[in-house]
Amino acid sequence: MYPLAEDFILSVAITMLLQIVFVFLLYKLFNKNKWQYLLITAVLAWLIFSLSNFNQLIISNISAAYLIYLKYEKPLPKYWGLLLTAFAIYVKAYVAIIAGTLTFSLLAIDFFRTKNYRRSLSDTSIVLATMLLFWISIYGSPGGFFNYCIGMFHLAGDNSAAAAFHPTNNWLLILPFLIGCWVIPFLQKSTEGRMFGFLFLLAFFAAWKYGMAREDYSHVKTYLHFVAISMILFLVYNPKYLLINTPVLIFVFFLFMLNMKNVENPEPLTLNYSGIGNFSKFISNYSEIKEKSERQNQENIAINRLPEEIRNRIGNATVDIYPYDYTIVAANRLNWKGRPVIQSYAAYTSWLDKKNATHFSGSTAPEYFIFGLNNITTDLNGGQLESIDNRYLLNDEPQTLIEIIRNYNPIYSDENFLVYQRRNQPLEIQSAITNTQSAKWNEWIAIPDSASHFTRLKLHHDRSFSGKIKSFLYKDELYYMYFKTMNGSTLKYRIVPQNSADGIWISPFHTSAGNTSPAEKITEILVTVSDKDMVKNTFSYELEYFDTDEKTIDSFFGKDSIITPEVIANETFNFESDQLNWSGFDAKNVITDPVDRQKYYRVDAEGFSPTFRFNTNSLAIPTRITVDCWLKTMRDAHSSLVIETENAAGEKNWQGIEINRQIINQDEVNHIFSYIDLSSPVAKVAVYVWNNGKKPVIISSINVKMTKE
Questions:
Q1: pTM attached to this predicted model
Q2: CA–CA distance, 591 with 640 (Å, rounded to integer)
Q3: In terms of domains, do 620 and 665 share one?
Q4: pLDDT digits (tens, 9 = 90+) for 559-589
Q5: Is the N or the C terminus of the chain less surrounded, counting Cβ atoms within 10 Å?
Q6: Quick one: 27 and 137 in the same domain?
Q7: Cis before 518 (ω within 30)
Q8: Are residues 104 and 132 in the same domain?
Q9: Per-residue b/e over 270-281, b at no fewer than 16 CB within 10 Å?
Q10: What is the DSSP string of 618-677?
Q11: Cβ pair 544, 456 in contact under 8 A
């Protein structure tokens, strides 16, 4: 949760309130009047605040309040927790889920202890009524409240398949941590231990799913901090076995932290605490800090200022931004009218996507629509229409995208923006869907020519029984689609199962917008999954054809003129013998797969594949060098696909990409891609696979292409 500038003082005040109340609750949890416990409370509060952001402060307050209620049956802390639970739903989905599971568990425990139906109904009503009152205070009416709650459920429930990373974990380090934190409370010979266990059981599971489904450093750290603070409260709440529980918990936490080097984007674990000095500096220099921040904000967003004639044309009309760079609104002081799910990558279920689609086709749609291109990142295929996590932007909201194409007409395009205005009458775009067909994972499916229409594929699949168990307890699999182009290249993008049934964009396949590069013609597609044992053997699909030609789609993406790049070189090694521009072939390394009878080239530890070499007086710019490689190796193997260049002065540039970053299924042949855009002329190019690990790499093919823009 990040406060807006005008709400910063309010957020600081609420943070201070949460900290003060938590210190009071922590001291009351000890239930000791000796001065020593004031000191212990201060030390523990400092430690907990060092681990806490605003979200965790809310959860910590709820946790401590409910523990006091369970131990001493004081109702006031319980009502504080119920109030914060209602507030949490407007903070973040994660906070709402953890707060909700804690509150549900408390109400269930309280009911089974007292059998007091009226109290249970009263407490539940308090939470729901307070949630509704917060909504009315924000929006002025109850309209939209229930849709908001359903939307939060969708955002949380399908996050695993849409946003999961799959690093290689050491489960010998993780399992003791899980057993220690989940089981130790139930092993206590005390009512307090079991009460704690039942109160936190669902919350621990929800936090585990949140942290380990995504499994990047930020999410895992959030999970670790929540469990750490909860177990500190456990030691305070149940001090009887303190001398046994403390070292055991420290040990299992240490093991889990050892595994954190395996997560996505690992960082060193640190404690962060602002302290009194920073707070006093903020209070005494607030005006100066605010002025400096505002200047910096204006500098940061200056790149997103629209051309003057476009800004004048928009005037005070309503505007929405795509896909998610809303600094365009601030940079141009636009009259923003947001869609229900304001970030395209977050509309990853059919229900969420449908809400946005209905918005753009209805009377509440904005008059203008701006596609911001400044913050679009380059994907692993070298394209510039990436969403997040190797997803293709045009597949984030299949239903919404069709409604945008129907209802908005492009009026301006450059390398920074595509600007659209709402049509007086929507385009008449009809679609035809083929009969349902079945296919197997990792088998190519032919795609008919699409010159007179654009094509999408509706994908349906089912998990196996073990896949359902794994998805529930841990996370879903990785799903990717390979796109084979007419020019022989291969693109690959992650797909989200929850919205794949609404349509995966196939052809024409644009990899950029607002420039002159042509769309790719897709001839075949292949669907793969990280573990085929977790899904049924086959999936079904239909092709969907829309009666809009490629020229209309090109124009929509700001491509009123197309320039096809010149191919300078395009060579594939055939693993038969040394050939022109290739060297280092050793026939002893050629093996034949006994199943598919295909030839592979084996590269053992510290070995190299045959090397592509291209020598010229000067390779002009702008030139792009791309490498398509198909190979087999273990996901935790260490090897690199290398592009090496040398200029006329003998200066070398070495670019190696980690092959295991693109391994989807280690039991199948995987596509590995690398590219380099030359920023200065070069005289020599070399391309090869370097196995700098201990496990073999089995290469199926290597293709090198050089194109001049």
A1: 0.90
A2: 21
A3: yes
A4: 877 888 888 888 888 777 667 788 888 889 9
A5: N
A6: yes
A7: no
A8: yes
A9: eeeeeeeeeeee
A10: EE-SSEEEEEEEEEE--TT---EEEEEEE-TT--EEEEEEEGGGG-S-TTS-EEEEEEEE
A11: yes
